[in-house]
Automatic annotation (TrEMBL):
Subcellular location: Cell membrane
Keyword check for rRNA-binding: no
Spans through the membrane: 20-42, 298-317
Domain (HAMP): residue spans on this chain: 323-375
GO molecular function annotation: kinase activity
Keywords: Cell membrane, Kinase, Membrane, Phosphoprotein, Transferase, Transmembrane, Transmembrane helix
Superkingdom of origin organism: Bacteria
Pfam families associated with the record: HAMP, HATPase_c, His_kinase
Name of the protein described by the UniProt record: Sensor histidine kinase
Length: 591
C-alpha cells in the first residue's frame, strides 16, 4: 500500500524540518483556538452579564410595583379608619336612612376621600357600597343607572376571598373613566361584617408606569400576570400568548429566573420576578436577543481579523523556535516518568528511524524485561497467598460432627426416620457446600445455605437452645465472597455464647450492601467476650480462648484475600448484643 505524499515527505525529512512544520502547525492552531475561545468566552460572559443586569432591573421593578400596591392598600386602610367611614359603618346595619342622613354622611366622607387620593394619586375612583346607599367622591361622575350589586365586581366579592385585586378592565361604575385595576376590600374595624363593600379603582397607566420604572427601553417589553396566569394589564399584548404555552410554563416552573424563548420567529431573553404582594403576581421582561447581543457580531469580526494577522507572524517566528522544542525527547521523558511511577504499560512508538526512536526501542525492551520479572514475582506471591488461604480453610474443623452423628444414631434408635433423613441430607449438603468444588470463592446464596444447614443441624442436636434468623438484601444472592465465613462465627455463638443454662439464645445473620462494601453481620444475645482481648488476639499467633481462634481464622482469611480493604468489627454487651461485622469490597479483582 502506497503511503500518502505528506507522510512520505515527513519520513524522509530531517528532524529539524519536522520540528519546524510541527511548530508552525501548533502555533497556527493555538492562535485559532485562542481567538475562537476568547470570542466565545467573551460572548458568553456578555450574555450572562446582560441576563444578570436584566434580572437585577426586573427585580427592582418588581419591588417598585410591590411598594406601589402596598402604598395603595395602606392609603385605603387609612381611609377606612377615618371617623366619617366609621359613621357609615355604624349606620349600615339599619334598613332605612333619610335623604338628609345619607347626604350628611356622604358629605362628611369627601374629606378622607380627597386625602386618600392626595396620598396616592394613582387612585382614580372609590365606591363604598352599603345597605343604606352608595358613597363616592363628588368629583367622580357615577353612573346613576347602574347599581353596584348588578356589576361583575359585586359577584366577585361574593365568591372570592378578600382583599382581592381585579386585573385591568374598563371601569363601568364611573363616567369618563379609563382602564383600571380594582382593589376589592371589606372594612377592617369593629363593624366588620355589616355588608359594606369598598371598591378602589387604580389607573392602569399608573401601575404600568411603576412596572416599567427600571427596565423598559426601546427593545424590551413588560408583561404582568396573576397567580392564575391571567394578564394583570395590557391583556391584548402580543406577549400574553407565549406565556400561556406549556414550554414557556415549564421554563418558569424549572425555577430559572432568566431563559431564552422563541416565538413569532424571534429569539427573546426572558427575565422574570415575583411580586409577592398582593397575590404572587409575576412580572416578565422580554428583550429581543438579536438587538440585545448585537455587539457580539462585531466581536466575531474583530477576532477573525486578529487571528488572520497573527498567522503570518507565527510562520516567521517558528523558524527560530524550532531548536527550543524537541517534542520526541519530551515525550520519551514523560514516558520514563510514568514508568518511574510504576506504570509499566507505557510504550514509546515512532514512525521515524532517528536517534530518539532508537533510544525509545531500548526503553521498550527494558520495560518488557521488568514486567516479566514482576510477573514472575507476583505469580509466586499469589501462589503463596493461595496456599496460606487453603491452609487456613483446612483448619476449620466441623467440631459438631461427632455430636451430629450421635444425634443421628439416637434418633435412628428412637425411630425418628424423618429427622434422621433430614439431618443426613443437611450434613451431606453442608459438606458439599463447604467443599465448593475446590473453589475459594462462593456466592452469598450458597454461603447462607451452608450456614442455614449448619444451624439446622445444631438445633437438632441442642433442642430449644437457640433460634435464628437470616436476612439477605435483595440483589446480593450472586455476590461472590470467601466460603465458610459465617459458619465459624455462628459456631462461636453456640459453643461460647449459649453456655449458660436456662438462657434461650437468638442468632441474627444479616448480609447487606453499604456503599461500595458488602457487610456480613452475625449477632447473638449470649454471654459475650472480652472485646479488647479478642481484638488483640486477632493479630497474634495464639488467641483461641473465648472464640478467639475462629475469629482470628476468619480475620486472617479476609486480610489475605482482600488486603487492607477488609475489616472485622466487634461488639459485646453480655446477654444483650454480641456482634461480629465483616466488611469487604463488593467488587474485587484478584491481582
Amino acid at each position: 500500500m502506497r503511503k500518502p505524499i505528506l507522510r512520505t515527505f515527513l519520513h524522509n525529512s530531517t528532524f529539524k524540518t519536522r520540528l519546524w512544520i510541527g511548530i508552525v502547525s501548533i502555533v497556527i492552531l493555538a492562535i485559532w483556538v485562542t481567538g475562537v475561545s476568547s470570542q466565545y468566552l467573551a460572548s458568553r460572559l456578555l450574555e450572562r452579564k446582560t441576563a444578570e443586569l436584566s434580572q437585577m432591573m426586573i427585580g427592582k421593578s418588581a419591588q417598585a410595583l410591590e411598594e406601589k400596591l402596598r402604598k395603595v392598600r395602606l392609603s385605603v386602610l387609612t381611609f377606612m379608619m377615618s371617623p366619617p367611614f366609621e359613621d357609615i359603618l355604624r349606620a349600615s346595619p339599619g334598613t332605612e336612612a333619610s335623604y338628609y342622613s345619607y347626604f350628611a354622611l356622604n358629605n362628611a366622607l369627601q374629606v378622607p376621600l380627597v386625602q386618600m387620593q392626595l396620598i396616592e394619586p394613582s387612585i382614580d375612583s372609590v365606591l363604598v357600597s352599603t345597605p343604606i346607599g352608595e358613597f363616592y367622591s363628588v368629583t367622580g361622575a357615577k353612573r346613576t343607572n347602574l347599581d353596584f350589586a348588578d356589576t361583575p365586581l359585586s359577584r366577585i366579592m361574593q365568591e372570592k376571598t378578600l382583599p382581592l385585586w381585579v386585573p385591568a378592565h374598563r371601569d363601568g361604575l364611573f363616567e369618563n373613566s379609563g382602564r383600571v385595576l380594582s382593589l376589592l376590600i371589606e372594612p377592617i374595624s369593629a363593624y366588620r361584617g355589616t355588608d359594606v363593600q369598598v371598591v378602589v379603582n387604580v389607573r392602569e397607566s399608573a401601575i404600568k408606569e411603576y412596572a416599567e420604572t427600571n427596565v423598559v427601553g426601546d427593545s424590551g417589553s413588560i408583561a404582568v400576570i396573576d397567580v392564575a396566569g391571567n394578564p394583570v394589564m395590557d391583556e391584548h399584548s402580543r406577549f400574553v400568548a407565549p406565556m400561556r404555552e406549556a414550554a414557556f410554563q415549564s421554563e418558569v416552573n424549572a425555577g430559572r429566573n432568566h431563559f431564552e424563548y422563541r416565538f413569532e420567529g424571534k429569539e427573546y431573553l426572558v427575565n422574570w420576578a415575583r411580586v409577592t404582594f398582593p397575590d404572587n403576581w409575576m412580572i416578565f421582561y422580554f428583550q429581543p436577543k438579536a438587538v440585545l447581543l448585537k455587539d457580539i457580531r462585531y466581536m466575531w469580526w474583530a477576532t477573525l481579523v486578529i487571528v488572520l494577522a497573527l498567522i503570518p507572524l507565527a510562520l516567521i517566528l517558528s523558524k527560530w523556535m524550532t531548536g527550543l522544542l524537541i517534542r520526541p525527547l519530551y515525550r520519551l521523558q514523560r514516558l520514563m516518568s510514568r514508568a518511574g511511577d510504576n506504570d509499566l504499560s507505557v510504550r514509546f512508538s515512532s514512525d521515524y528511524r532517528d536517534e530518539v526512536a532508537q533510544v525509545g526501542e531500548r526503553f521498550n525492551i527494558m520495560l518488557v524485561k521488568i514486567e516479566k520479572l514482576i510477573q514472575n514475582v507476583t505469580e509466586a506471591e499469589k501462589q503463596k497467598r493461595v496456599s496460606e488461604v487453603k491452609a487456613l480453610q483446612a483448619q476449620i474443623d466441623p467440631h459438631f460432627l461427632y455430636n451430629t452423628l450421635n444425634t443421628i444414631l439416637w434418633k435412628s434408635e428412637s425411630r425418628k426416620q424423618e429427622d434422621v433423613k433430614e439431618m443426613i441430607v443437611s450434613l451431606s449438603q453442608l459438606f458439599r457446600l463447604g467443599l465448593n468444588n475446590g473453589h475459594d470463592l462462593t456466592t452469598v446464596a450458597k454461603e447462607v445455605d451452608h450456614v442455614s444447614r449448619y444451624l439446622s443441624l445444631q438445633q437438632q442436636c441442642y433442642e430449644e437452645l437457640f433460634t435464628y434468623e437470616i436476612t439477605v438484601e435483595e440483589g446480593l444472592e450472586e455476590q461472590p465472597l470467601l466460603k465458610i465465613l459465617l459458619q465459624p462465627l455462628v459456631e462461636n455463638s453456640i459453643l461460647h455464647g449459649f453456655r449458660s443454662e436456662g438462657h434461650t439464645g437468638r442468632i441474627i445473620i444479616r448480609v447487606y450492601r453499604e456503599g461500595a462494601f458488602i457487610v456480613c453481620k452475625v449477632e447473638d444475645n449470649g454471654e459475650g467476650f472480652d472485646k479488647e482481648r479478642v481484638e488483640a488476639g486477632l493479630v497474634e499467633a495464639a488467641g483461641q480462648e473465648n472464640g478467639g481462634y475462629a475469629l482470628r481464622n476468619v480475620y486472617t482469611r479476609l486480610r489475605l484475600h482482600y488486603g487492607d480493604k477488609a475489616a472485622m468489627e466487634l461488639e459485646s454487651e453480655p446477654y444483650k448484643l454480641t456482634a461480629v461485622t465483616l466488611r469487604f469490597p463488593g467488587e474485587y479483582e484478584d491481582n
